[in-house]
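Teaching assistant here, posting this on the class forum so everyone can see the example we discussed in section. The complex has four components, and the goal was to see what a joint structure prediction looks like when all of them are supplied at once.
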Amino acid sequence: MKKYQIGVMGSAADLEYPEEFEKAAEKIGEEIAKSGHITFYGAEKDYDSLSTAAARGAKKAGGLTVGVTYGKTKDVWDKEGNTDIIIPCGLERGGGREFVLVSSCDAIICIRGASGTLNEITVAYQLDKPIVVLKGFGGWSEKLADTYLDDRNRRKAIGANSPEESVKLILNELNK
Amino acid sequence: MKKYQIGVMGSAADLEYPEEFEKAAEKIGEEIAKSGHITFYGAEKDYDSLSTAAARGAKKAGGLTVGVTYGKTKDVWDKEGNTDIIIPCGLERGGGREFVLVSSCDAIICIRGASGTLNEITVAYQLDKPIVVLKGFGGWSEKLADTYLDDRNRRKAIGANSPEESVKLILNELNK
Amino acid sequence: MKKYQIGVMGSAADLEYPEEFEKAAEKIGEEIAKSGHITFYGAEKDYDSLSTAAARGAKKAGGLTVGVTYGKTKDVWDKEGNTDIIIPCGLERGGGREFVLVSSCDAIICIRGASGTLNEITVAYQLDKPIVVLKGFGGWSEKLADTYLDDRNRRKAIGANSPEESVKLILNELNK
Amino acid sequence: MKKYQIGVMGSAADLEYPEEFEKAAEKIGEEIAKSGHITFYGAEKDYDSLSTAAARGAKKAGGLTVGVTYGKTKDVWDKEGNTDIIIPCGLERGGGREFVLVSSCDAIICIRGASGTLNEITVAYQLDKPIVVLKGFGGWSEKLADTYLDDRNRRKAIGANSPEESVKLILNELNK
C-alpha cells in the first residue's frame, strides 16, 4: 500500500482553544494512523498546538509521525516522545518552516487555524495539493470551507463535518 | 535618511486585471521611489504581475529596485531592465521564494492579490511587519482591509484609498 | 532507546564508482538499521548515489529511511521503494537541499564524495555535528580524514577503516 | 552596461587575520565598485569579516552593496552603514544563508576562508558559477587555487595574485 504523508495543521496554544478541539485534532491523527498513513505536523518549541495534538493521536494509534520544526535543533514541544522523525529544517518559523512542511505533505487537513495555518493553506493551494478543512471549530478552516482561495479555481478547501470525515475526504482526493 | 525596503505585492498576470490596476501598481512604486526608499517585488519568470508593475513605476521615478525570484537563474520577466538587483533565492515559488521576499522587506503594500499575495500577507503578519492593502481593487487586499489576520491582534492590514495614500500610510507605520 | 537520525553522504552516480563502493555504502545503512537508528540520505531524481545505496542497505535490514530531495515532488530515484519518508524540501539542489538534509541529521557518515558531499561536510562542521569519513574510498572523505575543517578546531572528520567501524564511531560520538 | 552581482567571501573575524588582509579584502570591493558592478557579501550579526571588509571598500568607492544575512532582522555588523540593501533571508547561518547568498551572485571571489567560505565555494561550483581565489592569504582559497573541486571538472577555482587581478579574472570569466 502506498503510504501518504498527510499534514495536520491548526491553531497554536498561545491562542486558547477548548479541550474538545484538542481531542478532535488527536482524532484526526488517530484516523490517519489507522488508515496506515503518515502524520506530518508543525513541531513548535515553545508550546502545544492542534497540529502537535494530531501527532499525539497518531502515535497512540501506532502511526508514524514526522514533525517539521524551525531552527537548528531537535528540541521540540513533545514531552511524551510522540515524534518518530524530527526535521529541524533550518528555516525560520512564520513562513519558511511552514513552506518546507507543506512541501513535504501529499495533502493537508486543517482544524481551526490562525495566521500560521492560513499560510500553510496558501502554500498547499499554490502547490496544488488537496486541502480539507474542519467545519465547526472556527478559525480560517471554517472561513475557507468549500471555497477556492482565488480565481484560478484550482482546488476547493473541502469542508468536513468531523475528524473521521476529514480523513475519508482527504484519502478520496489522494486516491483519485 | 534611513532607506526602507518596501515590498509591493499583487496579482500575477495569469489572472487578468484592467490596465488601470497596472497603473495604480506603477504609481505605488513611483511614490516609494520619490520618497527615497527601495522597492522590493516578486520577480516572475513567466509573466507580468502587479508586483512587477510597481518595479516599473519605481524605476521610471529613478528609484532602486530589487526583485526576488525562485530557482537558480536571474532570468526574470523584465524586458525593460527595471531591476537593479535580482535575488534568485534558490527556493521554489509558492511559499519559499515569497518567504525570502517578505523576510527582506521592512513592510509591504498589497494591491488586489490572489493566493500568492495572501501567502505574503500571512508572512508579514507573522513577522510583525506593517501591512497596507489597497481598497477598491478587489482580491485579498480588499477582503482583509482594516482587519487583523487572527486573534493575536498584532497589526491590522491597514486599508488605503489610493496608491499615494498607501505609501503615506506605510511610511507612517515605519516611522512610528 | 533514543533513535538517532544519521545521514549517509557520498558520491552521485554521474561520477562512476566500483560496485564494491556501492556495497560498502549499503553496509553503512545496514549497520545503522541494525543498531536501531534512522538513515537519512539525499534522494536524487536523476540517478543513483552512494547516499541512495545506504538507504537500500538500511531497508534490507528493516530500518527506517528518510530521503531529502529538492524541488516540489516526491519522484525520486528509488525504484524499489526503499524510502519510508520523502521530504521534498522546496529548496534547490547544490546547497539548499543539502542544508535541510544535514540540519535534519544528528550526525553524518561520508563515503568517497565529490563537491556535494564536501558541501554537506561543511554544513555539519558549522552546525557542530559529528562527522565520520570512510578511508580507502577516495574523494573528499579520504582527503579530510582526521583533520579539522578550519582553525576553529571544532570537531575532526573522524576517519573510519570500514563501514562497520564508521557506524561504531558515529554512535560513540553521539553517545558521548 | 550589464551590472554583475559579485560576491566576496572570506574568513570571519572570530578567526584572527592581519590588518593587511582586511585591506586586501577592501581593495577587492573597491575594484568591483570601480568597474561599475555590485558587491554581495555575507553580513554577520556578531563580528566583522573579510566579506564585510569588501563591502566597506566597495562603498568607499561609491559602489552598490548587498548584504545577505541570516535570521529575521536587518541588524548586521555594519556600524558605518556601508550596506545599501540587506537581505535577511530567513535561513540559518552555516549553509542556509550561504546558499541564498551564492545563488544570488553571478560569480564569487574568495580570500583566505574557513569552513563558511569552503561551503560557499562548493555551492558556486555546483551552480557552475565562476570562482576566483586569492593566493598568498592562506585558508581554503589558497588550498584550492587552480584546482577543480571534483572529477566533474566543471570550473577551476582560478588563483589570483592580487585583489586587482582577482577582479580582472572574474570579469574575464563573466564576459566570456
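For the discussion questions: Chain C has six helices and seven strands. Chain C touches chain A at residues 3, 5, 38, 64, 66, 72, 74, 84-91, 99-100, 103-104, 106, 127 (CB under 8 Å). Think about how each of these relates to the inputs above.
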